[in-house]
Amino acid sequence: MTTTAITAIIVILYLIGAPILGGILAGLDRIITARMQGRYGPPVWQPFYDVLKLMSKEKAAVNKTQNFYVFCFLLFMIFTGAVFFAGGDLLLVLFALTLASIFLVLGAFSSNSPYSFIGAERELIQTMAYEPMVLITAAGMYLATKSFFVADIAAFSTPLIYYLPGIFIGFVYILTIKFRKSPFDLSTSHHAHQELVKGLTTEFSGPTLAMIEIAHWYENIFLLGIVYLFFAFNPLLGVIVALLTYFLEILIDNSNARVTWQLTMKSAWIVAATLGMANLIIVFFKLSV
Amino acid sequence: MAFLKLAGTVTKRMGMKSACYMYPVVAREFTKTTRGHVELDSADCIYCGLCQRKCPTKAIEVNRQEKNWTIQPLRCIVCSGCVDVCPKKCLRMENTYSSSVTSKF
Amino acid sequence: MSKRTIIPFGPQHPVLPEPIHLDLVLEDEKVVQAIPRIGYVHRGLEKLVEKQEYANMVYVAERICGICSFIHAQTCSQAIEDLLPIEVPERALYLRTIWAEMSRTHSHLLWLGLMADAFGFEALFMHCWRLREKILDMVEDTAGGRVIFGSCKVGGVRVDIEDAKLKDIVIQYNDLEKEIKEITDVFVEDYSVKHRLVDVGVMSKEDAHVLGAVGPTMRGSGVAKDMRTLGYAAYKYLKFEPVVETAGDCYARTKVRIREVFQSIDLIRQAVAQIPGGPIAVKVTGNPTGSSFQCVEQARGDVAYYLKANGTKNLERFRVRTPTFANIPPLLKMLGGCELADVPVIVLSIDPCISCTER
Ligand code: SF4
Ligand code: SF4
């Protein structure tokens, strides 16, 4: 088989498998969270039931453009993951990711609700908070492997984590923002219990909300894919570390209050500037001499 | 400064039994003193109407001529006032909640 | 001038357990003004007294609020007993005290949970309520109801707690105390919690006085005023000091309530150790006359009952000033100039009980 054919198969597998895996992960998340809180929790399949139910609901949108934006969000999220798992350019992947989230923000802005309006503003602030660290991650991977292509990075013989421990920690730190977990679930949280009701997603309902859910499943699998990259020299280890990271996020989610956006921003940048930058500089010198 | 102060408790909780139970699969246990709902032993009732007068929510209706005693369970606030006042002690406070209904009366 | 947004906060809002409406005028994420509107759950108790017999008003008063339930019934009974007048047996006074303190512990745990929820800490919320549930079970076991105790009446109490059960309550509270400590330590020490509470919604001692704050809201600002020191019920026989914190921010108010939980447990221990035997109620005859004013410390602050009677079986006037009503002006003061993200925390920090306020 040619490499193109293999790539095509992987992409198709991703298109079908990611939402399933992502949904199961979300279901496990809810069970573990419930256990941590002393509750029973729902069945593993609950996220799928939720999405199916949302699908069957009436389409009620504040305005038509909203659905278009959300559709673009889903589309670019899928595109991001597809390029990533096809072994494409990491920079393209990361900017497609940003583009996707900008579409969601636009969707929230387009409905004149003050809740989603402020939620959208906060989402932008969050994007600003995590973006430097994401770029540093890409730069670090490039410095270590001399390639921006995910396929090359994954095939790199020495463990990436050996070069980039600081960047790994920094990336896990901002993952909390990306996964929308406490303490950084500012713009929207998993449960509608904050001053902004549901923030960013307040004005979405029915099939539109289902699209956002599915997009998040794609997104989560893709993000864990980046975590995997750090340990790609040993696929089994990579998967285990990715799952452990997710568990760590759940633990952090359950032992923190939601902090203010000022602290989110400050801490994410401090982490990027110290752990990220220091690691980058060290790798730069180590590999250039 | 202490970070992740609750982390210990939540990890400990993961291996423990859930604090809530699967109602209604697992039945709720009522205590002996629980005020659940009012029951009448109609054999002893003399239809004096004292319970009706005492009830703060007018949930009980007594008709002396027709020898009829009715209660609207949804109006009753389970204060037990009627039980205390009944001269024949024919009203009982059961310790189980009145069962769910699909219509108001 | 920057653009102003008005965020409608309530009457239906996930953070608010009860309906109050606040129009939050925002500049970016800063609240410049908060305009309250209440009256969504008014039930007209003042009129109801004309129809209900005075003894029945105790049941009605208890249902003013689902959390301070017992203390409402207690205050109402106290006022009617004052009008009749009758002496309540000692044992009944002690039992009332024990139930009132149980009510305070469960109310404060409920509040701690709601507070945790307000700053987005779901696990902490669940654990506070898990502990509260154990207290509710004890209440059900002794009084018959879970949140509506229904055990207080004019002239005493309606059910007795046997001595064995009283001892059992103390044992259960001893175990519970350790668990509560484990959870409340999170409020006191955790970095992310402190980040959300310290220096948020500060109210000075002077403001607390001038705006007429009551209860933990006031004690968090350094004013040592606790109605229990008046010595009603069995408090005159028990040893305690009002809990005071001086910082005046949400963190101080939280700490006041946490310390009060332990204070209440201690009061229950003292009361159980000293409780005398004897009857639990006296017979009530005649109709009340005159007027009575009673102040009692609820979990949220002092509640004031004014009752007037004219010798018939119905009261003439029935007025309740609940703690939340007194705490709304201080709340508006605290909200001015705060961040939007802090609004739920500040609103919760007065422990609002809207159905109390509107009766
Ligand atoms: S008070 Fe007792 S005897 Fe009289 S009507 Fe009611 S139930 Fe019957
Ligand atoms: S328990 Fe109270 S409310 Fe219910 S019927 Fe009896 S007197 Fe009326």
Q: What can you see in these coordinates?
A:
The complex is a heterotrimer of chains A (289), B (105) and C (359). Chain A has helices spanning 3-36, 46-55, 64-85, 90-110, 114-145, 150-155, 160-163, 165-178, 206-230, 235-254, 261-288. Chain A has 11 helices and no strands. Chain A is 75% helix and 0% strand. Chain A is globular and about 60 Å long. Chain A has one domain (3-288). By secondary structure, chain A is an all-alpha fold. With 105 residues, chain B is α+β, with helices and mostly antiparallel strands. Chain B has a domain at 35-97: Alpha-Beta Plaits (2-Layer Sandwich), CATH 3.30.70.20. Helix content of chain B is 17%, strand content 15%. A two-stranded antiparallel sheet of chain B has the order 1-4. In chain B, strands 2-3 form a two-stranded antiparallel sheet. In chain B, a hairpin with a 4-residue loop joins β2 (60-63) and β3. Chain B is elongated, with a radius of gyration of 22 Å. The mean pLDDT of chain B is 82. By secondary structure, chain C is of the alpha+beta class. Chain C has one domain (42-357): Cytochrome-c3 Hydrogenase, chain B (Orthogonal Bundle), CATH 1.10.645.10. Chain C has 13 helices and 8 strands. A 3-stranded antiparallel sheet of chain C has the order 1-2-3, with no helix packed on it. A 3-stranded antiparallel sheet of chain C has the order 6-7-8. In chain C, a hairpin with a 2-residue loop joins β2 (21-27) and β3. In chain C, α6 (163-189) packs antiparallel against α10. Chains in contact: A-B, A-C, B-C. Chains B and C meet through α1 of B and α5, α6 and α7 of C. The complex binds iron/sulfur cluster (2 copies). One iron/sulfur cluster (SF4) is lined by residues 40, 45-51, 62, 69, 86-88, 90-91 of chain B.
Counting DSSP E segments of at least 2 residues, the number of strands of chain B comes to 4
Radius of gyration of chain B equals: 22 Å
Q: Give the fraction of residues assigned to helices of chain C.
A: 40-55%
Task: Specify the overall morphology of chain B.
Answer: elongated
**Helical residue percent of chain B?**
10-25%
Q: Uncertain regions of chain B: pLDDT < 50 for 5+ in a row?
A: none
Largest sheet of chain B: 2 strands, antiparallel
- The residue-averaged pLDDT of chain B reads 82
Span from first to last CA of chain B?
59 Å
Mean pLDDT of chain C: 84
CATH homologous superfamily classification of chain C: Cytochrome-c3 Hydrogenase, chain B
Instruction: Provide the spatial order of strands within the biggest beta sheet of chain B.
Output: 1-4
At the first level of CATH, what is the class of one domain in chain B?
Alpha Beta
Q: Number of domains in the coordinates of chain C? A: 1
- The CATH architecture term of one domain in chain B is 2-Layer Sandwich
According to CATH, what is the topology of chain C? Cytochrome-c3 Hydrogenase, chain B
- Which regions of chain C contain 5 or more consecutive residues with pLDDT less than 50? none
Strand order of the largest sheet of chain C: 1-2-3
Quote the beta fraction of chain B: 15-25%
Structural class of chain B: alpha+beta
